Structures are given as C-alpha cells and as structure tokens.
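Hi all, a correction to my earlier message: I attached the wrong file for PPO candidate 1. Here's the right sequence:
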Amino acid sequence: MVSLQPPICNFGWKAPVFDLPGVDGKRYTLENIRGRNGLLVMFICNHCPYVKSIRDRIVRDTGELLLYGINSIAIMSNDSAEYEEDSFENMQKVAQQYAFPFPYVWDETQQIAKNYGAVCTPDFFGFNAHLELQYRGRLDSSRKEAVMNAPRDLFNAMVQIAQTGKGPLEQIASMGCSIKWKEE
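and the right structure:
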C-alpha cells in the first residue's frame, strides 16, 4: 500500500463532465447530480483502509451538506479485476451497508479519474455552484483512526463554499492509498 497526497486546490478549475453507472441502476452526470450551491466529488473505493476508516464520517458529512444545497457523488476508479473487493457487486453491498446518501458510481475505464487528476482514495474535489474547484483537501485531521472532535475540514469548507462560492485559502491535502491503475 502506497500512501499518497494529492496536490492542493487549483482554484477555479472547471469540473470535467462524466456519465457513469451507479450501484442503484441509474446513470449519473455532472449536470444531473450538481446541487444548487455546489458539488462534492469523492474518489473512494471499498478496500482502502483510509476510506474504510472514514466511511461513517463521509456519510454524516454528505448527509448534512444536503441541507446547504451541496450534493455529493462517490466515484470508484480502481482496477476491480486486480482488487475483487472493489468489484461493482461489492460497491453495491458497501453502499447499502453504509446507507450512502449519495450515488456511488463506477469509473470502469478510469478515464474520469484521469480527467480529474485523482491520485488517491480518498481524494475530495469541492466545487461551487458554477462547478469551479474551491476545495481539494482532507476530510478532517484524523488519519486512519477517528479523532474525537477533530475539526471537520471538508464539511466546513463545503459550507463556506455553499454560503460564499469560495473555499478556504488554506487547505491540507488528503492522504490515502494510490488509485489502482490498470496496466496499459
């Protein structure tokens, strides 16, 4: 397992479009999932210990962000042929087990992860109402173990984006496992 950190936010960068199948049988696009005040795009997977350790907090934060007009979507881009735990069937099980309040979609070709420049799981991209990037940072100050009362970096940034259209100037990069790319 390689631990990576994505680059810091490229403010104003426009969200690349996508059209991906969800575990619920629906298709999701950038246009049909965006919220009135913004969109949180998360690259996650099922097998990464970093993601496993924050699932409950992701569910909590994305559920609360709905109240601020921020929708969320989780994209799984790993090579599921090499990582069975990340299969579409297992994505369905995880989404149901954790009652994800957001679509969980499959990037089978990995093109969307490449378009976004995603490097790890979790990798968070917070966009404003104009789909301009305003946050690319960590969930909170916890790593693999939850820290009681840890400041909710992602949640607070997305609330600020919902209210002002702008993200915080200071952001701390997320940390996680590398995306498992297919051999070309």
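Sorry for the mix-up. Residues 140 and 152 are 5 Å apart (CA to CA).
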